[in-house]
């Protein structure tokens, strides 16, 4: 029934990557002078972002179309970097809550032009965003440091897995490939070229975030070893 949050516990995890993807389109569209009219995600059918194209330039088309797939990869990379530099976890959870609150307030409505793409799921995106804000706020304000770190590690893992999942869609007929097809039509360049470019940038982002995290973790372990008393002391 519309207006009732889903009881499918797999949905919040599956929807996270999709929501980051769609909000990437909306953020990029707004930044390039277009208007994002709404975001919607589905428990079964992916997501959609409705954009009013006010800027017909090729640069706008490239940036907006690419920002979905690459937005998920950037989210994974940023999560890994955040884990490397913000050990307490309060700041990253507060920032994540702010991200959901701002994008939700800007582009999520229970009955918008975007939600019409998914009959019967008009409230799914609304409940997901509201739940995400509440969970992130609770993690920042109430959770212990170990719980915050484990929880945010899970967020980073989900986004990394979502990025890998989108690679499968690059050659399929739905999801990220629809962005590829649209971009190929608007730029006149073959979709294979955009596949290569997107794949290279996505891999660079995720691997780069992983390297930053690994180096920070190695530095932590070295510091811990130096603080240990010598054997037999």
Detailed description of the structure:
68% of the residues lie in helices and 6% in strands. The chain has 233 residues and is mainly alpha-helical. The protein has a two-stranded antiparallel ribbon with strand order 1-2. It has helices at residues 11-31, 58-85, 90-107, 124-141, 145-169, 176-187, 191-227, and strands spanning 35-42, 46-52. The chain contains seven helices and two strands, in the order αββαααααα. The chain has one domain (11-223). It starts with 10 loop residues before the first helix and ends in a 6-residue tail after the last helix.
Keywords:
single chain, 233 residues, mainly alpha, two-stranded antiparallel sheet, 2 strands, 68% helix
Quick structural overview:
With 233 residues, the protein is mostly helical. The protein contains seven helices and two strands. The protein has helices spanning 11-31, 58-85, 90-107, 124-141, 145-169, 176-187, 191-227; strands at 35-42, 46-52.
